[in-house]
Specification:
- By secondary structure, this protein is mainly alpha-helical.
- A hairpin with a 7-residue loop joins strand 4 and strand 5.
- It starts with a helix and ends in a 6-residue tail after the last strand.
- The model has no long low-confidence stretch (mean pLDDT 94).
Length: 474
Amino acid sequence: MSARGESTRVWLLAVLLLSTAVRAAFAFRYFGFSTGDDLEILQAGFRQALGWSYQPWEIRNLLLPQLVVAPAIRLGAAFGVQATGLLAAFASLPFVLLASFNVVLVYRLAHRWLEAESQALGAATLYAFHWLPLGYGSTVYPRTASTCCLLLAMAVVWKRPGRSLRPLVAGLLLALAWAIRYSEAVFLLPLLATVALEQRRSRDRLLAVSSLVAGFVAGSLVTVGLADWLAWGKPFASLIAFARFTLVERLSSSLERAQPAYWYLWRLAKWLPLTLLPLLGFARRRSGWLVPALWLLLPLAALSAIHHKELRYLQGIMPWLMLLAAAGAGALWVRGRRRTVGALLALSVLLGLSGLGFLGKKSMAAVVAAREMRSRLDSGTVCLSQAWAYGGTLYLNAGGESAFEVKELGYPLGANELARGLASCRVVALYRQDLEREPSLGEALTRRGFERRSEHRWGASKAVVVFERAPASF
């Protein structure tokens, strides 16, 4: 092995160790929730692993919680971990490791295409320290796992022409990816394009595409059809419910249900370090650029056509963005612009880290409030605005007990709506900023015998105020 090759592998190992350690630290430090989707996955995992009470949402395929989250929770429990928060952090560790494996896959795919260790290392480094894979790789959000399946599918077929079972295997992997999150079906188009472009003869192209489709259909029969039959009692139950909720009724669990088609471009600077744009412009000088470009642009166009958008949905296209940037860096490097390349890459890494602030805004303060309520009270109805932020029943009924009933007050909350929902409440918890924005909320609570009990703060997460009244008052 050459000295350059040895130094490249040392650098890659350093990138892997550092990014893995950072994600693991994030998993334990930022113990709150971002949207409630992460809570759903955790609760489904606790239900499968320890039998805790939870009714999953009908649009969710439960394969990921069953195969990844639940085993991690069981492992933590087997090591004697009892605290809910620590078990939840244990559940994140498989995703931490999958995110590191994704970095390796990005390196291997870049090396296969660009045939240059330094450029492959650049792609892996840019990817490892971009806030989307780095931040979400510390959580149980599913696209870390689905991206791994997509990268594996490409590792099977890209630059691997000839008749073989490879397209079939790629189709099976794609079926697993879309079972993890149904929106990953948008990657079927670039995967089909990849296997078609790999073949020179029309007959071989038809066989490869047919094999890929067969693998996807056969895999879906297992990952969606059979999995839903076992989980819901009906084949494809969650897929049908998801299609009805998302495509027919055009609904979303988010407060912002629809964004314009140009939303991802409007938010471009949030997910694409602008210092990569000059490098992307030079990527076309590299032969074979069309395949990674298709993996970037086709899913982006498809996701833009869907009414609801989130930046985290773009995780599957980030590897291809970094591969194209690395190709552009290589093209610019051979033109003698080495200082420019170094500066652009360094700035891109720094800008890529800038989005990590979302972790500090997770609902740590609300979880702290839920823990405090659990330690102080023995039972009762706990009324919460955005109950997911508190962990739903995860912390209040820790251990699978059902001493507390959690009642959702709704969000955003008005005084009249709050007053109508207080009849059975022993404890009410609201965001401090909502009380400041709408003083009538606090007045409504005071009129019904509630007293301000405590306030909980944690970094940049939303502060929470807990109100309580004596049991004799209701």
